[in-house]
TrEMBL record:
SUPFAM superfamilies in UniProt: Methylated DNA-protein cysteine methyltransferase, C-terminal domain
InterPro entries registered for this protein in UniProt: MethylDNA_cys_MeTrfase_AS (IPR001497), MethylDNA_cys_MeTrfase_DNA-bd (IPR014048), MethylDNA_cys_MeTrfase_DNAb (IPR036217), WH-like_DNA-bd_sf (IPR036388)
Region (Disordered): 13-48
Positions with biased composition (Polar residues): 30-45
Membership in a protein family: Belongs to the MGMT family.
Broad EC category: transferase
Protein name: Methylated-DNA--protein-cysteine methyltransferase
Species the sequence originates in: Basidiobolus ranarum
UniProt catalytic activity: a 4-O-methyl-thymidine in DNA + L-cysteinyl-[protein] = a thymidine in DNA + S-methyl-L-cysteinyl-[protein]; a 6-O-methyl-2'-deoxyguanosine in DNA + L-cysteinyl-[protein] = S-methyl-L-cysteinyl-[protein] + a 2'-deoxyguanosine in DNA
Keyword Methyltransferase: yes
Amino acid sequence: MLTKVQRVSPYFIKPKMVNNDTEREDKPTQHMNGKTDQLKQTSQEIKNEVDSDIETVVPFPRTEAERSSFPNYKTNRSVTEHQFRVYDLCAQIPAGSFSTYKEISNALNSSPRAVGQALRNNPFAPLPIPCHRVLTSNYFIGGYDGDWGSGNKINSKRAKLEKEGLKFDENQVLLPQFQDSKLFTDFQL
């Protein structure tokens, strides 16, 4: 039974398999032009961020030099400047709060769809870029990792948000008591 996914580099996802009391780690699989273990970094070089169901060790590029050629393993293309701007703002949303595609687009003078497309291809999800904290402007749960409205990925998004203290109704809409009190809009550009 798959219990945890560990992101070791932007090109390599290593499932940790647990079978009763014994653990076995699968061998690396190759992604993007055969790059695998050579891109691993030591734990001292990477700040580990832990979520209940995933340990993320994908380093988030901060400098212009790091960002200029950072590849997105989901699209096999470089991450664009617009995508990094969206990710920078999304990283500011604290646990237990949420924002909307529209609020992020307003801060960037962009469009909600462009924000959604950037988050759809987020190679840093769920941490260090918590795109699960972004909802639609009518408080619908929206999308997650390429899915929209329902499905396992949306259930995962809802579970993450509920663990952080937000609650939804049966139609995947944030409950009214959280809609104003937990909306994050104080983005720093």
